[in-house]
Amino acid sequence: MELGPRRATVVTQGADMDQHLSRPTWSRQIEFTLAGIGCAVGLGNVWRFPYLCYRSGGGAFLVPYLLMLVVLGIPLLHMELTVGQYMRRGPVHALANACPLLKGVGMASVAISFIMCTYYNVVITWALYYLFSSFQAPLPWQNCNNTWNTPNCTSHATNSSFSSTASQEFFKFKMLEQTSGVEESGVLRWELFLILLLAWILIYLCIFKGVKSTGKVVYFTALFPYVILIALLINNVQLPGALDGITFFIVPEWDKLLSVEVWVNAAAQIFNSIGIGFGSLLAMSSYNSFNNNVLKDTLTISIINSLTSILAGFVIFSAFGYMSHLQGIPVHDLAVDGPGLVYVVYPQAFANMPVAQLWAVMFFFMLLCLGLDSEFAMVEVMVTSLMDEFYQHLITFFKRKELFVLAICGAACLLGIPCVMQVGIYVFQLMDHYTAIVSIMFLAFFEVIAICWSYGVNRLSDNLEEMTGKRANIFFRLCWLIVAPVLITVILIFSIIQFRPARYGDYVFPPWAQGVGWVIALASIIWIPLGAIHTLWVLPGSFMQKLKLSFTPYGLDKMTKMPYYEREGKDRCPVIAVISSNMCRPEKPPVQTNL
Fold it and tell me: Which one of 189, 262, 319, 389 has the fewest beta carbons within 10 angstroms of its own beta carbon?
């Protein structure tokens, strides 16, 4: 990464103060593209997408999935990357500029990313545990001759509720040592805690230099999983029964398309997979060069993300076909769930493959890579947003940015400790349910309202033209203005109607635990009303004047003296300014809000 030599003139009310600021940029644009792919392509592509396909009639799920990619995923990613690159700010400042009343959406996206990074790293911890366990023969989940196995253990996959497979018992009794419920906390799993610490050390070493270090790491973490996926696919398709699994994956059960739930799940999968609303891609795009081709990155990231999901589908369903062949039952009768797909079902398939250790090591190393670059993005949101807002205070206190990043990683590691206790799987499931399912839909809804309707489609198109020389075409403008807001509203409504309390397998969380879950959800959502109240409090005038100004882009600049960042040279100013003597100078007082 190169620190660009651009200077910026900071114009505030009352006086012109020249402050020389620079914002890091990616050394090569391919680094941002790879980081974006790494952020979007994660563990959800390997377990959630195949699981939803399996539950939604195989190939039938691909129809709404691809349609939602075109009308929802690509336009909203284009929107986020445009806003991030133009404003050159993280989600907090970007949303405050776009719609002051909804500036809390930016704060909420930072909060949700931080909450997620605390428990998402536990999945990476599990991957490391399985990776280390794979260097032995036979694999520890290959048979029932172990100290942790129960009399009900069987080496063959089964749907019986009275017996459990070797891989299920390894996951439950060896790695997790899980308790009977959330009421029983158990003790700290020291092995998992030390691996969690190792995972956070890996994260820190990859991101402590900002995009300078992340940009180099993603060359490996974003690309290597594809090598392993292709190798696994080549191996799996040669196994007996693989064709039955692939047929189930690509041949639709058309009657499933009549179910509204399938369409809502497809839209939600596109949404969660690409990461709309989390602020990660918006934060990373703020480090782009001002004239970067946003559309090219949008299409590359979104299409490769979906192709990866489909490739993973072929890998997983070919293994399903092999397992159904071993068990002598149809593919649709296999017992499959979300995370268990990766840590229970697939390891069971490895156990019966030739050279089982090799495939196990490759698969769990792939999970590690997929998890790491998604984790980079979540931590980067927190770091970028706090550095944008409190740069001078943080540098004064921590002296170096690297120490601040270390403090963030250390705090997240400590907050992840409950997830590596014996009660950890219940804590993980509770946090995931109320964060990834409940909170994100509210955030996405308000983000689209803030940018598409308040900031405005025309203004967004003007920004795009200023950066790339081309306005958004009619398709994107139509999606931003009508299609995306309507679809997200429908998804939000159905998410509320179909909401089910958190559960783990057959275990239903008690009411007090559900209450804790809602507190976790509110930890991010609460910033939206708090931000709105603060905006209305600080703006001048009567209530109606405050309300009108709160929907005006850059309206907060009147009161908060928010810096206007104006670039010199060929980069045009994104605020009301003209280029004079190779520097941006104010053309009108900063209180003007028309762009």
Answer: 389
Task: Name the H helices within 352-473.
Answer: 356-398, 401-415, 424-432, 440-448, 457-468
Taking the CA of residue 51 as centre, how many other CA atoms within 13 Å lie in the half-sphere pointing to its CB?
Answer: 18
Q: What's residue 414's pLDDT?
A: 95
Residue indicated by tokens 């009549």: 258
Contact 80, 448 (CB under 8 A): no
Angle between helices 356-398 and 29-40 (to 10 degrees): 120
- Six-digit token pair at 393? 């205070």
For residues 372-384, one letter each, b for 16 or more C-beta atoms within 10 angstroms of the residue's C-beta and e for the rest, the string is bbbbbbbbbbbbb
559/565 Cα distance (integer angstroms) = 17
What pLDDT, on a 0 to 100 scale, did the predictor assign at position 151? 87
**Mean pLDDT in order along the chain per 10 residues (595 residues):** 34 30 74 86 84 81 91 93 91 91 91 90 93 90 87 70 78 90 90 95 84 73 87 88 88 82 83 84 89 92 92 89 80 68 81 85 90 86 86 87 91 94 91 81 89 92 92 93 90 83 84 93 92 91 88 74 38 32 34 37
Are 125 and 423 in contact by the 8 Å Cβ rule? The answer is no
According to DSSP H, which parts of 275-355 are helical?
A: 280-285, 294-327, 338-340, 346-351
Please tell me the number of Cα atoms within 13 Å of 80 on its side-chain side: 33
Single out the residue of 80, 43, 50, 47 nearest to residue 65, CA to CA.
50
Backbone angles phi, psi at 252, to 5 degrees: -75, 150
The CA angle 261-265-266, to the nearest 5 degrees, is 120
Alpha-carbon distance of 303 to 274, in angstroms, equals: 10
The predicted pLDDT at position 585 comes to: 34
- Decide if 110 contacts 443 (C-beta within 8 A): no
Q: Answer yes or no: are the C-beta atoms of 528 and 446 closer than 8 Å.
A: yes
Q: Is the pTM of this model over 0.90?
A: no
Largest Cα–Cα separation, the chain = 82
